[in-house]
Structures are given as structure tokens and as C-alpha cells.
Task: structure prediction
Amino acid sequence: MALNQGIFSRLAKTRQVLSSGLMGLFSSKPKLDDPLFDEVEDQLIMADLGVATSRLIVDRLRGAARSGHYDSPEQVVGSLRQIILDILNESQRGETPVVSRKPHVILMVGVNGVGKTTTLAKMANRFRQNGQSVMMAACDTFRAAAIEQLQTWGERLEIPVISQAHGSDAAAVAFDAYSAARARGVDYLLIDSAGRQHTHSDLMAQLAKIKRVLGKIEETAPHDVYLTVDAGNGQNALSQVESFNRSIPLTGLCVTKLDGTARGGVVIALAHRLDLPVRYIGVGEGIPDLKPFDADEFVSALLPDVAAP
Result:
């Protein structure tokens, strides 16, 4: 496939950690033995794939090596890429919800500071550019600035935003937004929610209330619940996903700020450890820098043929 050079350049920090390390290991045509694979595992951990995911990958490489499947380091790198791709593709097989009537409702959740509201607005813009009608709901009533932020995005993108005053009941805002979106025949309703630490029980309960209220007017709503995580948080993102998923079942992940971190390998760890697809990745500040996740493109950008001559 033709590699998206924008993605390639934006993942440079993670690629530098992973590819440079592997280049150093394989450049001298080493013996394909256990000490070498131990070092490969160390390189994967340094790229923030995590211990469990790195061990799984290297165990597969060891097994293939012991079976005589490799004649050169190039083949090991090719196998490494394929194993990572298989992990990512396996997680992407989640079913697309069937929406019986408009709108398709997406509830966005996440901790403070991960870029949740910005991601929601950029996603809304993608839908609009694809010719679909969109509405956003400012259900982060916990912070007045969050309401203003989404309203500003709405004005900039020419997308309507349903909101109420600071301190209003978030579930009531969601109810009003759904009613308005349905009355107007809108294709997508994107609901922002308050940034919250996953240990904050009251705010986590608020998410369940939003889901419960929406379910009373449309049994299957919200049709998607996306958790936004910051790639720079590395392995801490795993505990966030697990905690949110206990409070409100998630259907997908949005991984932001991949351009500013060397810890992009966490995407692979998320795919391995959790049965959730990565739907979007954020690779920059611009509106077009929110990209639908493509496993082939991601692996090609993250791990080029570093052992090739």
C-alpha cells in the first residue's frame, strides 16, 4: 500500500526508539538465538508495548526461529511486523452497530486533558465533510470552559451545538440533544462528557445515567461509546480503559497525541490486552490530523524494513 507520509512523519519519535534499536541489533547479521530475542523484547518494551505484549510477540518469534523458519534478520523483522499487524487486525474486528433510526449517537468519554473535546469536534468535521449531517452536545456541564470550547468548535465548523448552563444535569442535556437531532433527521449526534478521573465514582456514575436516559428514548443509544486516551500516558492508558469499561461498556478507542511521544507502541498494547478497536488516532494539532485508524498504515509507519540493506 502507498504509505501516508503524514502518518510516517508524525510517528517519528516512536519509530526512532523502535527501529533504531532493532537496526542496531540486526545490522551486524547476528546469530538468531535467545540472547538476541531477549534484546528484541527489551526494544519492544522501550517503545511502550508493555511486558505482556512484548513477551507474546517475542515468544512467537522464538518459536518460529527454533522451527528453522528464519535464515536472516530481514525475515525476523518481516515476521515481527506481521505479528504486530495480526494483533492490531484482531482487535479491529468489532461489529459496527446497526442503527434502526437516526441519529447514530456517539458518546465520548475520557480523563481530563487527553484531548477529548477536540477529538470529538474533529470527528464531527470528518462526518460533515463526508456529506453527513452532524450535531454536537455539550454534556461536560462540570466546567463552563468546556461548554464554551465546544460552542467555539461548533461556530468554527458550522455544526450546531446543544448546550445548557454550567452546572446543568448532563443527562438532561443529552436527552434534549437527542430529541433535537431526531426531530431534524440528523445523521450523527456526538456527545461530549465531562473529563473525569477513572477513580471518581460520582462522575463515573453520571456516564451510566446518560446512557440510561438515552436508552429510554432509543433502546440502542448510545450506539458507540469512545474513550479518548493520550498516547503519552503509555501503560497507564490500560487502567483507564479497564475502569471506564466497567462503568459504561466501550465500543472503541481514540488515541491522541501520537505525534508528540515515543510511546506510540501503547496502541499495540491496547489492541493486545483489550478487546476494543482503535477507531481514530490523533497525529497533530490541525483539524485534518485526526485519522481513522489503519493497521497496515500504522505498522508501516512504526516499523519500516529496518534490517533491509
Remarks:
- The radius of gyration is 21 Å.
- The chain is about 50% helix and 15% strand.
